[in-house]
Design a protein that fits this description.
There is one protein chain. Helix content is about 0%, strand content about 45%. The protein is mainly beta.
Length: about 400
C-alpha cells in the first residue's frame, strides 16, 4: 500500500467565486505581478509570488498569506501585510515577521487574524531592509462581502422504504445487498468507517489542490444522517498550515467491492443554486491511478459532477438540475462500463479505460481550487450508503 497518494482532479473550470468566499481562501496560483526591489539597482530583487485572501466575509476573522522570493539571499528586517480603505486609513493585518531570510527558494509569511467590515480594500505586502527602508510590493483588491445567510433547516426526512431494496433505477429485485449504512443512532460505526486519510485525528489532505485538513471531530451522526462538516478553522497537516478544517471517512480495510451498484442519498451544501465547497462521494483502489477512481458525486466549481479517473483516462459529466434538498447519486459498475445516475435517471456512461480492481468507499467535505463558493460552517449530509452486486 502506498504511503503517499494523489487524488486526481480534472482541469479547473473558471470558478464562479463570489462574495461568499470566506476567511482563508488564499490565491494558490502565482500572481503575474511586477516585482518590487530595493532602491539600489544593484540590490536584491524581491518578487511577490502570491498574496491572499482576495475575498472574505464581513465579521469573520482571517489571516493574510504572502509568498515572496528574492534573486539572491537577503535579510529583511520585517515583513508584513498592509490594508488600506478608500479613505487611506490603515487596517493592517496584525503581526509582522522579523529577521526574515529571503532567498531564491522563497518564503511564506502568515499574519495574525482580524476581521473587516464589508467593502473593498487595497492590500499589499511590504518588507523593510536592514537600513530601515520599506519596500511595498504590488497590491491586490480585497473584497469583503456581507455575512452570508446560514443554511436552511433541512426538510423532515420521509419514511424509508423497507428492507433496503435495490438501486433507485432498478426495482427488479435482482440485486443482492453487499454493504449498507443507514446512519441510525448517535455515533459513527467504526467497524465500517475510518475517520481520516491514512491516519487518525487531524489528517490529509487527499491531494495538493485542497486547502483543508481533515479532523475526526468534524464527523458526526445525528437525526438519521452522517454529517461531514467543513469549518473556517485553521489546521496544519502534512507539514503545512491550511485555511479550513473538513471531514473524511472511508472503508479502507473494512469493505471493498469489484463491479456492482453504489447509491448514496445525500444533501450537498449549497448557496444561491450552486454546490458550496468541495464535497465528494467516491471510491478508489489501493494503487491509484492503476486501480482507477469513480467519483459518484463531486462538487466541482459549484456543479454536481461524476468522473472516472484511471492511468490513461480522465472523463466526466456535470448534469444540470436542482441542487437543494436531498438527492440520490449512484453508479453501476460493469466490466468495461460505468453508468452514473442522478435521482434514478442515467446521466453519463464511461466505456474507456474501465478496470475491475477492488475499490473502497470514500466520503468527504473539503475545499480547494476545484471547489465551489465557500460556505462555512456547512455539512455534507448523507442519509444512507448502499452497495449491491447483481
Amino acid at each position: 500500500m502506498r504511503t503517499t497518494r494523489r487524488h486526481a482532479r480534472p482541469k479547473p473550470r473558471s470558478l464562479r467565486i463570489g462574495i461568499l468566499v470566506t476567511a482563508g481562501a488564499v490565491a494558490t496560483a502565482a500572481l503575474s505581478l511586477a516585482t518590487a526591489a530595493s532602491g539600489d539597482p544593484s540590490g536584491p530583487r524581491v518578487t511577490q509570488l502570491g498574496l491572499g485572501p482576495g475575498h472574505l466575509t464581513a465579521g469573520q476573522r482571517a489571516s493574510a498569506r504572502l509568498e515572496i522570493t528574492a534573486d539572491r539571499c537577503v535579510t529583511a528586517d520585517r515583513v508584513t501585510v498592509a490594508v488600506r480603505d478608500d479613505a487611506g486609513r490603515n487596517l493592517d493585518f496584525p503581526g509582522a515577521e522579523s529577521g526574515v531570510r529571503l532567498c531564491p527558494s522563497g518564503h511564506t509569511f502568515t499574519s495574525g487574524a482580524r476581521e473587516f467590515p464589508a467593502g473593498s480594500y487595497t492590500m499589499f505586502g511590504s518588507w523593510r531592509d536592514t537600513d530601515g527602508v520599506w519596500h511595498p510590493l504590488p497590491s491586490i483588491t480585497l473584497n469583503v462581502g456581507a455575512t452570508p445567510k446560514t443554511e436552511p433547516t433541512p426538510e423532515p426526512e420521509p419514511a424509508r422504504e423497507p428492507g433496503g431494496g435495490g438501486p433507485s433505477w432498478d426495482s427488479s429485485g435482482a440485486w443482492k445487498l453487499r454493504f449498507s449504512d443507514e446512519f441510525e443512532g448517535d455515533s459513527l460505526d467504526t467497524s465500517k468507517w475510518n475517520t481520516g486519510w491514512f491516519g487518525t485525528g487531524v489528517t490529509g489532505p487527499v491531494n495538493s489542490a485542497e486547502d483543508a485538513c481533515y479532523d475526526a471531530r468534524n464527523v458526526g451522526v445525528s437525526g438519521g444522517a452522517l454529517h461531514l462538516r467543513l469549518t473556517g478553522e485553521d489546521a496544519s497537516c502534512k507539514g503545512k498550515a491550511r485555511r479550513h478544517t473538513g471531514a473524511h471517512v472511508n472503508t479502507m480495510g473494512t469493505f471493498s467491492y469489484s463491479y456492482g451498484a453504489v447509491e448514496y442519498r445525500a444533501r450537498v451544501p449549497s448557496t444561491d443554486g450552486e454546490v458550496a465547497n468541495w464535497p465528494a462521494l467516491w471510491d478508489t483502489g489501493e494503487f491509484w491511478p492503476r486501480d482507477g477512481e469513480t467519483d459518484t458525486m463531486e462538487g466541482l466549481s459549484g456543479e454536481v459532477c461524476s468522473y472516472w479517473h484511471a492511468t490513461d483516462t480522465d472523463r466526466g459529466h456535470c448534469p444540470s438540475g436542482d441542487l437543494t434538498g436531498w438527492h440520490t447519486f449512484g453508479h453501476r459498475w460493469e466490466p468495461g462500463k460505468i453508468t452514473w445516475f442522478y435521482d434514478g435517471k442515467p446521466v453519463h456512461t464511461q466505456t474507456s479505460g474501465v478496470v475491475g480492481s477492488p475499490h473502497y468507499l470514500v466520503m468527504q467535505n473539503t475545499q480547494g481550487s476545484f471547489g465551489g463558493p465557500t460556505l462555512v460552517p456547512a455539512d455534507l449530509q448523507v442519509d444512507r450508503v448502499r452497495v449491491w452486486t447483481g
